[in-house]
Specification:
four-stranded antiparallel beta sheet, 20 helices, mainly alpha, globular, 519 residues
């Protein structure tokens, strides 16, 4: 039965919400890529921070509110769509004959790669602009045209917003980047973050028994997860996480109120569950995990509303892929082939002496599994409050068996229970973890990033599991102190890379500083 909301708890939720949204907004409007000396080769060889492929700029770089190859690749597509009407972000032109030494400086300046290829080709277009230089690109081996390696649906939607800003305010993403980029990131990251927290507060009012457990869960969602770290940069992980929660909200609301979902709630659940999968392919497990029980318990309603709504973002994803590159499958499906391994490509280094750094990590699967769970990019080591959530998932999941068996008897409501939801969360979490253990080429932890970003879309599901375990752990002062320490350590991981989310976690930096590990 739903518990009555506490005025004090509601007030705390409100204050945490406005504080979190203010922090995320400040990070967004104040975003600027910072050149950190520790990441560049020092004058003397060796030493902490030595990266042989990085050279300190000889002249002052242009300031930019973009950070990494990941977001620059997406922004390049947005710029190309609005200004050029194409998904092509550049093209390789081969030089016949090679340019004379007296060639105009502009030709040499357009060269994307080093002098070894200076007499062979030039890359022109957006990819040649230093502000959009990215490793996350692919090249059509037939046309020699460059594309972002990121699925184009998100960039298409962002381009729609930029088109409006460009038409209405005459903002230009190059000349007015300090207006365009923060405005769009606010729309994609900060506004949904606020909606997520407001809706989460309503759900948490009805979960668990103790105020401490509910406050711990909400404080974790606000300040204790790496979603806040990534709120200042355009990325697919936050939209995926928010979509997962928006799909879960009507389902959980109906379970709490002991009723069936309305048709429009089935549609919302299906749409956002599928939308999450377009941002994160492994989130397809969530779509299946939610949809199959609904199809079993409420077949007709699910077929009429859940499935059609779910097809909308899926069809849009495939359509965008086809329009962009003439292929239904995304560019990721070409990894390891000629689209990725063109001359000068970062990914073509694999198997050569130049393949150095975390992008080409070849450690054993057991080592990777450890670091992804309890090591330098660990789900539990960086956000140890998830240990409380894990206990909650196990406690509720154990009690889910009767509910699962009852699905076929068409029980009242949607057929779902809170215990089933916890069991689903645990199963899909293990499934996704196992999925990444089978992808040896992805053992790079997502590159230079402050956490296990491929797992971020699971965060809202784990937040919901905290109250049930916290109710048991916080019956004593010692239990409350213990969970508070776990929460504090999680907040530390969130704010350690406050200036740039595309930096290694503090645990890995500590290991590198002490010489324990270096990729």
């Amino acid at each position: 039965m739903p518990t009555e909301p506490s005025d004090i708890r509601r007030s705390a939720f409100l204050l945490l919400t406005v504080a979190t949204v203010a922090i995320a907004a400040a990070k967004t409007v104040g975003a600027e890529n910072v050149y950190e000396p520790s990441r560049y080769k020092p004058v003397e060889k060796g030493g902490y921070g030595y990266e042989p492929d990085r050279k300190w700029p000889e002249t002052r770089p242009e300031p930019t509110p973009t950070f990494s190859s990941n977001d620059k690749s997406r922004w390049a597509t947005v710029r190309a769509l609005v200004h050029d009407g194409t998904y092509v972000i550049g093209k390789r032109k081969y030089l016949e004959p090679p340019p004379e030494p007296t060639a105009p400086q502009g030709v040499i300046a357009d060269l994307r790669y080093d002098k070894a290829v200076a007499n062979k080709y030039v890359d022109v277009g957006i990819v040649a602009d230093p502000a959009y230089k990215s490793l996350d690109i692919v090249m059509n081996p037939d046309t020699k045209e460059f594309y972002s390696s990121k699925p184009p649906l998100m960039a298409t939607l962002v381009a729609g917003e930029y088109w409006v800003l460009h038409r209405v305010f005459d903002w230009d993403i190059v000349n007015d980047r300090w207006l365009v980029i923060p405005a769009i990131v606010l729309t994609w990251n900060v506004v949904p973050f606020a909606i997520y927290l407001v809706l989460l507060g309503r759900i948490l009012d009805s979960l668990g028994k103790s105020d401490f457990g509910k406050l711990l869960s909400f404080a974790t969602a606000s300040l204790g997860t790496l979603l806040l770290t990534f709120s200042s940069t355009l990325n697919n992980h936050l939209p995926a996480a928010f979509c997962v929660f928006f799909a879960s909200y009507p389902l959980l609301k109906s379970v709490i109120e002991n009723r069936d979902m309305a048709p429009w709630e089935y549609a919302i659940c299906g749409f956002f569950a599928a939308f999450a999968a377009t941002f994160e392919l492994p989130a397809t497990a969530f779509l299946v995990g939610v949809g199959v029980p609904l199809l079993v318990a409420r077949t007709r309603t699910a077929l009429l509303y859940f499935i059609p709504a779910a097809l909308i973002p899926i069809i849009a994803l495939f359509a965008c892929n086809y329009v962009a590159m003439g292929k239904v499958l995304p560019a990721y499906s070409e990894f390891g082939g000629p689209w990725y391994n063109f001359e000068g490509s970062h990914w073509a280094k694999r198997g050569t002496p130049a393949a150095k750094g975390i992008d080409f990590n070849d450690e054993p699967t057991a080592v990777y599994a450890f670091h992804l769970s309890f090591g330098h990019h660990g789900w539990f080591s960086l956000t140890p409050v998830w240990l409380v959530a894990l206990l909650g998932l196990i406690m509720l999941g154990i009690r889910s068996a009767p509910s699962v068996r009852a699905l076929y008897s068409k029980p009242k409501g949607t057929g779902w229970t809170l215990e089933m939801f916890a069991a689903m969360t645990l199963v899909i979490s293990l499934t996704v973890f196992a999925f990444y253990l089978t992808r040896v080429q992805s053992y790079n932890y997502g590159g230079n990033t402050s956490g296990p970003r491929w797992l971020f879309w699971l965060i809202p599901l784990w937040v919901l599991a905290i109250p049930s375990a916290a109710d048991h752990l916080t019956r004593s002062v010692g239990g409350r102190l213990f969970t508070a320490i776990l929460f504090a350590a999680s907040v530390f991981s969130v704010f350690y890379p406050a200036w740039n989310p595309w930096r290694n976690p503090w645990i890995l930096q500590l290991m590198e500083f002490n010489g324990w590990l270096r990729y």
